[in-house]
Amino acid sequence: MAQLRQEADPSEVGLDARALDRLDRHVARYVDEGRLPGFLVAVARGGRIAHLTTYGHRDLAAGLPVGTDTLWRIYSMTKPVTSVAALMLVEEGRLSLDDPVADHLPAFADQRVYAGGSGADLTTRPVRQPVLVRHLMTHTAGLTFAFYHCHPVDALYREAGLESAVLPGSDLAETVEAYARLPLQFEPGTQWNYSVATNVLGRIIEVVSGQALDEFLAERVFRPLGMPDAGFQVTGGQAGRLAELYGDTDDGRLEPIPGLPLSGRPRFLSGSGGMVATAYDIHRFMELLRRRGELDGTRLLTPETVDLMTRNHLPGGADLRTVGSRPAHDEPGNDGVGFGLGVSVVIDPERTQAPSGLGTYGWSGVATTTFWVDPGRDLTVQFLTQVRPRKSLKLYPDLKRLVHEAVLD
Q1: Which residues have CB under 8 Å from 37's CB, separation 6+?
Q2: Does the pTM of the predicted model rise above 0.70?
Q3: Using alpha carbons only, how large is the chain's radius of gyration in Å?
Q4: Can you give the pLDDT at residue 91?
Q5: Are 59 and 243 in contact (CB under 8 A)?
Q6: pLDDT per residue over 268-288, tens digit each?
Q7: Percent of the chain with pLDDT strictly greater than 90
Q8: Label partner for 399 (CA 20 to 30 A): which of 32, 123, 264, 273?
């Protein structure tokens, strides 16, 4: 069984062991205070794991500890994986970033965009330009999520039954067609709104490749990279390693909540958030990106494509706070952070909420999982737990600060 293992002493790769111990103690308090069930944190430099800590439980009721082989629902950390798969098709000439989405998904032809009003008085107009594949990858397509409650188009998603981004009982193709029937929130390419766009990208991968999304990713990404546990379902042999998913109660306790349906192949294959993976799987994926498209002799992307993926593509070189389309995007944590093709990208370290190297990229998941790659420091970091809090734990800025305090050179 493939498991993550520490491969170097921190001092060998220019990291301060005492600072890393401070990191562990800080995050352990979240567990000791009952705000997290347990966690795994791993820090690598030059591809070598120099710090690896597990603490607490993957299942509180059963008393099962977090292990290096624990399986985690990574939710939106699926998006960079789907983006890599789409970029592979771009390199093969089967897809272009500038393809209109309607070329592959005809339901997106004659798209309309919000013009004003709400409810019965909501008005729309034809788009001035079509939604392109690159708009999906940068979340500038004008799509949204039903749960935002910030815009009249969000309400239309709820009315259409898309509260959880999937049409109940439907597969990816049927759900994406439901998205296409709704107006866009804004003109494509003009604003940033985190959305269901990567589900649409997943469906394009299916159409272009002629394979279901899970089959394409398994054949073209997971097996070549040696990511043995990554996928969209959990087998009987894996089930005992899956972490329980928790939410928080009014009095601050953790309680189990429903998660992704994983016991069999899901009908809805979410390119936005459907994956499970171990820390080993995530490390392998980060290494592919850190090494600019190649790992252990297997090349999935050219260095130039990874460079393209991991630079800012927002209009006018803006950051997320500047071009975010709803109030929730106007957050201090978005200062100095742009967005590439499926990943966030630090474009102004002086303005970021936590210490960050220029060009650092990565993404997070709703169950409090995150990863980032810092090319300037040759550093990769992942943090895994399994909690969907109703309010942010404000953990990530501290995590980034404590990791950066550990870098000696």
Answers
A1: 31, 56, 57, 58, 59, 60, 243, 244, 246, 254, 385, 386, 387
A2: yes
A3: 20
A4: 98
A5: yes
A6: 999 999 999 999 999 999 999
A7: 90
A8: 273
Side-chain half-sphere of 337: how many Cα atoms within 13 Å? Answer: 23
DSSP string for residues in 97-152 = TTSBGGGT-GGGTT-EEEEE--GGG-EEEE-SS--BHHHHHHT-SS---GGG-SSH
Q: Are 198 and 320 in contact (CB under 8 A)?
A: no
3-state secondary structure of 358: coil
The pLDDT of residue 260: 82
Between the alpha carbon of residue 80 and those of residues 43, 193, 247, 302, the distances in Å are 19, 16, 25, 16
Low-confidence ranges of the chain (pLDDT < 50): none
pLDDT at 326: 66
Query: What is the model's pLDDT at position 333?
Result: 75
Show the tokens assigned to 130.
């079509």
Tokens of 147: 């749960």
Q: How many whole angstroms separate alpha carbon 143 and alpha carbon 196?
A: 6
- Chain Cα centroid distance, residue 170: 23
β-pairing verdict for 48-59 and 64-65: antiparallel
Cα(367)–Cα(72) distance, rounded to whole angstroms?
9
CA nearest 167: which of 275, 276, 270, 273? 270
Distance CA 113, CA 222 (A): 37
User: What per-residue confidence (pLDDT) applies to 366?
Assistant: 95
Query: Residue 247 is encoded by which pair of tokens?
Result: 């939410």
Dihedrals φ, ψ of 235, to 5°? -80, 170
| Cβ atoms of residues 321 and 331 within 8 Å | yes
- 17 is written with which tokens? 């062991």
Given phi > 0 = left and psi -120 to 50 = alpha, else beta, which region is 40?
beta
Q: How far is CA 13 from the centre of its chain?
A: 28
String of DSSP letters for 164-219:
TSS-TT--HHHHHHHHHTSPBSS-TTSSB---THHHHHHHHHHHHHSS-HHHHHII
For residues 131 and 140, the answer to whether their CB atoms sit within 8 Å is no
β-strand partners of 162: none
